[in-house]
From TrEMBL:
SMART domains: ALAD
Gene: hemB
Quaternary structure annotation from Swiss-Prot or TrEMBL: Homooctamer.
Listed Pfam families: ALAD
Protein name: Delta-aminolevulinic acid dehydratase
Involved pathway(s): Porphyrin-containing compound metabolism; protoporphyrin-IX biosynthesis; coproporphyrinogen-III from 5-aminolevulinate: step 1/4
SUPFAM superfamilies per UniProt: Aldolase
Gene Ontology CC terms: cytosol
Enzyme Commission number: 4.2.1.24
Catalysis: reaction(s): 2 5-aminolevulinate = porphobilinogen + 2 H2O + H(+)
Alphabetical list of NCBIfam families matching this protein: PRK09283.1
PANTHER family xrefs: DELTA-AMINOLEVULINIC ACID DEHYDRATASE (PTHR11458:SF0)
Length: 337
């Protein structure tokens, strides 16, 4: 017998990794992670008025929509199989004040939207935020007094807002303002109001990141912001602190955890999933979306391929789902595959 053993066989101990990569069928058979439409949550931007579809300059392909137009778009998302949406309001400037009091108006924009969606598309999940930044005149996520974001008063307000949003039809409250104790306060307020079935998706680790810029243009807070958010968002340098923050949210009753931003924090996604075992999500934020779109528009990358690759990477990092502005495009791609 002619021995065809090669030096490479001796070096690798006859273990060749490429055997499982040699054909399409073997690659499919051994694929570890898969992205499906069930993994997608679609963030959308809502504005007052009717018949409005307003393109956002800093987020090509993303629009601000009036409630009626948003409901039309959500019907399409539901038809594609997208499980849930996450709305963010761009409210009128004359309704913004230092305390964000408009968030407590029972008929504010986000609550109008929630009622309309639950009437028109009742089977899609509705995930709402109670952070105050769309409602404040200074662009911060909490109440600003004497140059300080006051924690406890903000927690009282967001807990009240959470109940109102649940009354309007929200299925999950996703508080993003990063105040201490907010998860427990919201859980108690929801339960006291009879909303035991309304879940909490905690922005467990929201980092003080430069990736949020286009979002702030989308809800018109960028020009309002006084100072920075470093006193309540987590430093990008701190992974252990992020895990401690998440642990407190778990103890306080969070049903799900979120990491924001996403791609630069895949290590945090993995560590959180390993540590707590709760459903874990990542938010592929506006800056991540825009840099992919901008590079693709310039012909520097294959935008569709990078879109799908980044979404799959979140799955590899342990995420159960992704909030992404690519949700509809990705769902169409998955449907046609």
């Amino acid at each position: 017998m002619n021995d065809k053993t090669h030096l490479v066989d001796e070096i690798t101990g006859h273990r060749r990794m490429r055997r499982n990569r040699k054909a399409d069928w073997t690659r499919r058979l051994t694929q570890e992670n898969r992205l499906t439409v069930d993994d997608l949550i679609w963030p959308i931007f809502i504005v007052p008025g009717q018949n409005i579809v307003d393109p956002i300059r800093a987020m090509p392909g993303v629009n601000r929509m009036s409630v009626d137009k948003a409901v039309e778009a959500i019907r399409e998302a539901a038809d594609l199989g997208i499980p849930a949406i996450a709305p963010f309001p761009d409210v009128e400037m004359d309704k913004r004040d230092p305390t964000g009091s408009e968030i407590l108006a029972r008929d504010n924009l986000i609550n109008q939207f929630a009622r309309a969606v639950k009437t028109a598309v009742p089977n899609i999940g509705l995930i709402t935020d109670v952070a105050l930044d769309p409602f404040t005149s200074h662009g911060h996520d909490g109440i600003l007094r004497d140059g300080i974001i006051v924690n406890d008063e903000t927690v009282d307000q967001v807990a009240r807002a959470a109940v109102m949003q649940a009354d309007a039809g929200a299925d999950i409250i996703a508080p993003s303002e990063m105040m201490d104790g907010r998860i427990g306060a919201i859980r108690r307020a929801l339960d006291a109001a009879g909303h035991q079935d309304v879940g909490i998706m905690s922005y467990a680790t929201k980092f003080s990141s430069g990736f949020y810029g286009p979002y702030r243009e989308a809800i018109n807070t960028g020009g309002l912001l006084k100072g920075d958010k470093n006193s309540y968002y987590i430093s990008p340098a701190n992974g252990t602190e992020a895990l401690r923050d998440a642990a407190l949210d778990v103890e306080e009753g969070a049903d799900m955890l979120m990491v924001k931003p996403g791609l630069a924090y895949l290590d945090i996604c993995w560590r959180m999933k390993e540590a707590f075992g709760l459903p874990t999500f990542a938010y592929q934020v506006s800056g991540e979306y825009t840099q992919i779109k901008a590079a693709a528009m310039n012909g520097w990358i294959d935008g569709e391929r990078i879109m799908m690759e980044t979404l799959l990477c979140f799955k590899r990092a342990g995420c159960d789902g992704i909030l992404t502005y690519f949700a509809v495009d990705a769902a169409r791609k998955l449907k046609s595959a």
